[in-house]
Design a protein that fits this description.
The chain has 254 residues and is an alpha/beta fold. It is 35% helix and 19% strand. It is built from eight helices and ten strands.
């Protein structure tokens, strides 16, 4: 794992977008297409804005997969992750092949269909965030580190649901769904490369727990330390509580 710290979320997003665009180009050169997974969260705003402006990205050869979605939420809802991806990535790039998790359909059917497409071939790169409670995708603590299923139905903990209110997606906690479909932890780790974008002071505690503490399911993002090609993009605010020795150690990783 590599940690990179930037002055602010804009420079962080631009640097992460450069690496993401390079990963897509390389996958298309090597295999004729790029299979990617994208997160849908406020933390991804600057990164996706920069990525959609990147030059010479062969978007027509990109196959996009969805990381997670609320159960029971229509695609027209402002908090829908399907809507997020359509507005912030698909419509701006011209991606034509994508597999979205429809929150209003039978979860078992959605998991089967999208999971079958996802596991048909390796994923080249996952774009990821880390939640305030340390989650990756919607794998809240204690996360399931064992299942090999590509997607699963998860119960959302209160900290996760409160984060959605705090970010302005919902007016109050009672509006936030209590369940979601999430890509599993082990499925995320099967990607050839993982780019994790984590700006803002409100993520500092989760970042510290993920990279200074022990690896374990109570801090789901800590598992990223086991991946051979994971890069974590932080700004000064999100990195503020990290032990400087941790930053130095992982900045030099290869």
């Amino acid at each position: 794992m590599i940690l990179k710290v930037f002055a602010d979320k804009v420079s962080l997003g631009e640097a992460a977008a450069d690496q993401a665009a390079a990963a897509i180009r390389e996958a298309v050169r090597a295999r004729g297409r790029a299979r990617i997974v994208a997160a849908s969260a406020a933390s991804q705003f600057e990164f996706l804005a920069a990525l959609t402006l990147a030059r010479d990205v062969p978007w027509r050869e990109v196959e996009l997969f969805h990381l997670d979605e609320y159960i029971g939420l229509p695609m027209t809802h402002p908090a829908s992750f399907c809507r997020f991806l359509k507005e912030r990535l698909i419509s701006k790039t011209g991606i034509t092949t994508y597999h979205l998790l429809n929150g209003t359909e039978d979860p078992a059917k959605v998991i089967h269909e999208v999971g079958r497409a996802l596991t048909a071939a390796p994923v080249d790169v996952v774009f990821l965030g880390i939640g305030e409670n340390g989650h990756i995708a919607f794998n809240d603590p204690p996360a399931d580190f064992e299942t090999e299923e590509p997607f699963l139905v998860v119960n959302l903990d209160e900290a996760c649901r409160r984060q959605q209110v705090g970010e302005g997606w919902y007016k109050e906690l009672s509006e936030v769904p209590k369940q979601a479909i999430s890509m599993s932890v082990r499925q995320i780790l099967k990607s050839r490369e993982i780019l994790t974008v984590v700006p803002d002071a409100r993520k500092a505690q989760a970042v510290q727990a993920s990279f200074d503490g022990e690896v374990g399911p109570m801090v789901p993002a800590s598992i990223l330390r086991t991946h051979p090609r994971a890069t974590v993009y932080l700004d000064r605010q999100s990195a503020a509580r990290l032990n400087p020795a941790t930053v130095q150690k992982h900045a030099a990783a290869s």
